[in-house]
Amino acid sequence: MINVTVVKHGTENSMSLIRRFQKRVQGAGIIRKVKGSRYHERIKSKTKRRVSALRRIEKRDKTQEMERLGLIKEPTRHVRRST
After folding, report:
1. DSSP 8-state class, residue 45
2. 0.85 cut: is pTM over it?
3. Would you say 8 and 17 are in contact if contact means Cβ atoms under 8 Å apart?
4. Is the pLDDT of residue 1 over 70?
């Protein structure tokens, strides 16, 4: 975390203080860093990935078993047409 501080000089007005603060923030690269991490997601832990994979495998096996027994129809596969 980068801290940016500005101190008001003797006769400096508020607008120039804000402008100076914005310049420092821009110069420190804080805005670029925040915008860059805006949509970033954390990497899932190894345990969460393993549990998720096990659920997917279990669900796939259950679906295949039900298809084999004729309880549900096989899903139709969409074929991509070349243009």
Report:
1. P
2. no
3. yes
4. no
